[in-house]
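Q: Sequence in, structure out?
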Amino acid sequence: MSDISPAKNHIIQTAKEAGFDLVKITSPFGLEKNAHHFKQFLDLGRHGDMAWMMEKSDRRQSPLTLWPEVKSIIMLGMNYGPSHDPLSLLSHTDRGNISVYARGRDYHDVVKKKLKQVARNLHRKYDADVKVFVDTAPVMEKPLAEKSGMGWQGKHTNLVSRDFGSWLFLGSIFTTLYLEPDEPEKDHCGSCVKCLDICPTKAFPAPNQLDARRCISYLTIEYKGHIAKEFRKAMGNRIYGCDDCLAICPWNKFAKKTLEPSYDPRIEFTFPRLSDLIELDDPAFRNLFSGSPVKRIGRDYFIRNILIAVGNSNDKSLIPKVKDKLCDPSPYVRAMAVWALLQLCNEEEWQNFKDKYSIKENDDAVRQEWQK
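A: Exactly. Output:
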């Protein structure tokens, strides 16, 4: 590191000591092309119901819009690499599959705490102003990470690292201290399209383009509605997020298991039984997922996802537990209970349930499910 300025060298060492695996520097300039692509994404409505993207779109165009005084951006990455192939869990249809990133503590809390630790040190030592961000402000983290040399955005639009594959949490420190920027990373995807081909719902209209409305991560986490029938079978046992396009990437051969204890998967999140999860009421849901990002979607939408997985399980022993959800207060739960029964029951069983419960239903969306 002899060719690195003392300030930059100190920041890198401080960040590594705090627990970050990658530290790169970039400038706040040169994101016009990315801003144009983001505008196209919004204009096409591919953000779905994520209205907050549209509301703050002008602030995403440039870091200078967010903070005009910024001179340098320190991009930091934390490895959350799993110890096994996430795709291996998809065949166990009696279990729920939770995205790797959500199996431990909420990364927002972990990363932000460490960012603040590095930022405080920087402020004290160099008397520079600082602001920290971790997926909670209109910052284009992935384009900035690519520009900093941390990795490149693959055809699935996510960041890929030559050292850590697909498994990096990103955070940034904006500062008024000028630091020599690092060189951008080149795209190393070549002709590979494995991430596009594996997508169960065909959420990529073209390489480097994502239609969030078809993405299982969006549908199971962000979408607050009745999931369309065309996606339900494709969801399989994915109850919170989807790792398929990340997990299939050949660059994961260089990935390493995370050394951060906070990201170690909780046993109850690694291989949870659908038969247990379907019984969660609101207090039990909040207790189970305390400190987890899963908690933010709420019990009703989570059980909605569980019932889709149950419908795909072929496990007829779950029929009594699904039947109990036909009287759930949430129409999102009742609707997917109807769909799950349609998948699990024979014609006579289905008709008996319909005769008993459909006449009591007053929600239009649930009534439509009864019409199969």
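The two ends are 65 Å apart (CA to CA).
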